[in-house]
């Protein structure tokens, strides 16, 4: 599928036009070739040379299934200044591998790669693109599988067309930065948006699972768009980077597709405008002011309820950078290795007053180099749309490889869920019922006093008491005219006094 400046390759027919070296086509994917039932250790796929409009920026994307002990490396070269540059690598990639981007440049220093973007500094820009994918495995029983390969360029002469107005809204879950893992800071905006794009199709994945699958070990951030598209591909969703204008975005919304867009805007605490990834929910028209507007999800909001926002089309066209990430629903029978979740037990140790993960009764200690996310979520009795909408509280990791609940959760007690995501995006989860804490000593004394007072009051209420009127009757003279000198008889007189004849 070729859409002006965006190129997306997928399917057997499209891949067959490229050069196959020790690789084969299997069910629409590029895999390592096999001999006698064993996969070759190394192979590569090279696309034809594609002519593109003169461009200054290039972004490359890929979707691949990479089991453990397998690897994918994507490279590109650019035709600029009358010749082809050397191959530039976007880094070796796999979900279980420490992904790291590479910064490189051409010999003349006019074309360079930083992170996920190739920049051409020549006056005429680049006019051609060629891609290459290297597949490798350390286990001859498994092979990586390339399902999608994409290239997107930002033309030098780029007229941001607005296209025909459209009035359509799409559902997109709302996730905000303060409610999730603060380890990546504001760079967590892209994992939040990617999780929303996938959860729209019923995936129910946590943003933290996405973040640790797409983390760039070189920068320690989650802002790499190529790794974001690859992370969505691990979950089975066709996903790629693109350079789009308003017309392209409106066509995507018309087709009901999910899109993430990058906006240059000022946020709280920042002096200069910075790029923020947002989810595109649709377009609308306000008849009162006769103006079109754009519906967005801003993950930098203070709460989930404030994520939905509206921006005038004129303002959106000014602040939209053109960078976008498109995502399509997951095809049937697509092999995916994410999300990966393992159910565990969570046991308490009184010796060191902490909790430990356990599998089949065997305690599993957290490694000292653990760099993931651990949190608990209390059961609040609310039916949330997705798991990511729940309230999460960070858990403290101990030196012994265990965890401690936050004090407020320990004080509250009750049922809660525990989520632990490691650097590969693999999540271990458990259900725990914390004991209700005993009341404080002062409160216990007050309760005992109240209970004793209540029991005394109940006893007194059960004992017959003469009313003031009855007491006066006991002190009156009997019919004989003499006072009764027996005080016991007076005190034990029945509630209702009955006059009797005196025997004296």
Tell me briefly what this model is.
By secondary structure, the protein is α+β, with helices and mostly antiparallel strands.
Do you know the CATH architecture of the largest domain? Alpha-Beta Complex
Strand content: 35-45%
Number of domains: 4
N-end to C-end Cα span? 125 Å
What is the share of helical residues? Answer: 10-25%
The whole-number mean of residue pLDDT values reads: 86
CATH topology of the largest domain: Cathepsin B, Chain A
Name the shape in a single word.
globular
- Give start-end ranges of low-pLDDT stretches: 455-504
Global structural class: alpha+beta
Number of H/I helices: 10
Task: Explain what you see.
By secondary structure, the chain is α+β, with helices and mostly antiparallel strands. The protein folds into 4 domains: about 1-155, Jelly Rolls (Sandwich), CATH 2.60.120; about 170-325, Alpha-Beta Complex (Cathepsin B, Chain A), CATH 3.90.70; about 340-435, Immunoglobulin-like, CATH 2.60.40; about 440-490. The chain contains 10 helices and 34 strands. The strands form 6 sheets. It has a 15-stranded antiparallel β-sheet that branches. Strands 18, 19, 20, 21, 22, 23 and 24 form a 7-stranded antiparallel β-sheet that branches. A hairpin with a 4-residue loop joins β26 (about 345-350) and β27. α2 (about 190-200) packs across α3. The protein is globular, with a radius of gyration of 36 Å. It starts with a strand and ends in a 13-residue tail after the last helix. The relative contact order is 0.10.
């Amino acid at each position: 599928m070729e859409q002006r400046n965006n190129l997306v390759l997928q399917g057997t027919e499209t891949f067959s036009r490229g050069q196959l070296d020790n690789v084969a086509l299997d069910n629409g994917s590029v895999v390592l070739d096999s001999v006698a039932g064993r996969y070759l250790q190394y192979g590569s796929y090279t696309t034809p040379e594609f002519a593109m409009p003169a461009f200054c920026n290039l972004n490359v994307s890929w979707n691949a299934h990479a089991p453990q002990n397998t690897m994918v490396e994507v490279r590109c070269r650019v035709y600029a200044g009358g010749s082809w540059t050397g191959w530039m690598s976007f880094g070796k990639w796999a979900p279980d591998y420490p992904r790291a981007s590479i910064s490189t440049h051409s010999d003349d220093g006019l074309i360079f790669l930083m992170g996920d973007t190739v920049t051409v500094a020549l006056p005429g820009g680049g006019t051609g693109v060629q891609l290459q994918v290297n597949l490798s495995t350390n286990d001859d029983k498994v092979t990586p599988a390339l399902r999608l390969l994409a290239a997107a360029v930002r033309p030098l002469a780029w007229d941001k067309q607005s296209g025909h107005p459209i009035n359509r809204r799409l559902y997109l879950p709302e996730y905000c930065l303060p409610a999730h893992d603060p380890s990546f800071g504001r760079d967590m905006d892209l994992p939040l948006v990617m999780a929303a794009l996938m959860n729209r199709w019923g995936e129910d994945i946590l943003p933290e699972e996405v973040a640790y699958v797409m983390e760039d070990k070189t920068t320690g951030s989650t802002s790499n768009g190529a790794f974001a598209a690859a992370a969505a591909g691990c979950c089975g969703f066709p996903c790629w980077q693109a350079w789009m204008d308003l017309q392209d975005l409106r066509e995507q919304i018309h087709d009901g597709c999910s899109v993430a867009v990058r906006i240059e805007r000022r946020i709280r605490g920042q002096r200069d405008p910075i790029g923020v990834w947002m989810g595109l929910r649709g377009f609308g028209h306000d008849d009162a002011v006769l103006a079109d507007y754009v519906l967005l999800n801003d993950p930098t909001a203070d709460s989930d309820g404030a994520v939905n926002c509206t921006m005038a089309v004129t303002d959106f066209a000014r602040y939209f950078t053109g960078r976008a990430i498109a995502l399509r629903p997951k095809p049937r029978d697509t092999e995916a290795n994410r999300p990966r979740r393992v159910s565990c037990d969570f046991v308490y140790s009184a010796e060191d007053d902490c909790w430990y993960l356990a599998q089949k009764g065997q305690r599993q200690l957290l490694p000292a180099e653990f760099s993931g996310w651990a949190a608990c979520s209390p059961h609040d009795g609310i039916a949330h749309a997705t798991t990511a909408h729940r309230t999460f509280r960070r858990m403290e990791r101990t030196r012994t490889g265990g965890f401690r609940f936050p004090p407020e959760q320990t004080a509250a007690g009750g049922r809660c869920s525990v989520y632990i995501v490691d650097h590969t995006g693999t999540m271990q989860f458990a259900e725990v019922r914390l004991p209700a804490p005993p009341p404080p000593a002062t409160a216990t004394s007050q309760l005992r006093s109240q209970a004793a007072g209540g029991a005394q009051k109940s006893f007194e209420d059960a004992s017959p008491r003469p009313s003031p009127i009855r007491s006066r009757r006991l002190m009156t003279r009997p019919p004989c005219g003499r006072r009764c000198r027996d005080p016991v008889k007076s005190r034990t007189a029945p509630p209702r006094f009955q006059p009797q004849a005196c025997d004296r």
